[in-house]
């Protein structure tokens, strides 16, 4: 090979290597993109609140600062039950392909007096579907006021931990800790005494964030 041809060959090889180095690897792109899907009810859908003041919106703002690679999709609907969430979830998983699914459902099941076993079964199936789609799962637990009866209330509060344990998911035992379980807690709620005021939502995020953030890493 002549010196001129050898130099031309080397130049072409270096140019090809430079082009490959400039291209982001598929693995790097895949690792960077994260989508967090929240499937919840009115507690996550900003019922009675100014848009942007609920805990999911506050979480999205914090994510944009601390995890700018992540996108939050809030698919919560006021009044939704675990049955409604289960019916909606397969389409949501196909559409958004989330890496993390937050399940905030069950409160309306209790308000309607639905069987505990049904609520548990629906949450188990939602967790199973999300995991099968390749997503991590975080379950947000709920508790009931004493007027629902101690037996039903205790069984309801326990079901979230039971689902999390059986499915190997992350758990926030009580998302309204510091809101609904404090003296004069009514001051933290809207007139219906069911939905927290905007001032309570930073506390809710404070309950969720320490469990959620490690799942992003």
Keywords, separated by commas or semicolons:
globular; 49% helix; single chain; 8 helices; 217 residues; Rossmann fold; 5-stranded parallel β-sheet; alpha/beta
Number of domains: 2
Proportion of beta-strand residues: 5-15%
H/E series: HHEHEHEHHEHEH
Please estimate the helix content: 40-55%
Strand neighbour order, sheet with most strands:
2-1-3-4-5
Gist of the model:
The chain has 217 residues and is α/β, with parallel strands linked by helices. Helix content is 49%, strand content 12%. The protein has helices at 3-22, 26-32, 55-66, 82-96, 107-111, 116-132, 150-167, 201-212, and strands spanning 34-40, 70-74, 100-104, 136-140, 170-172.
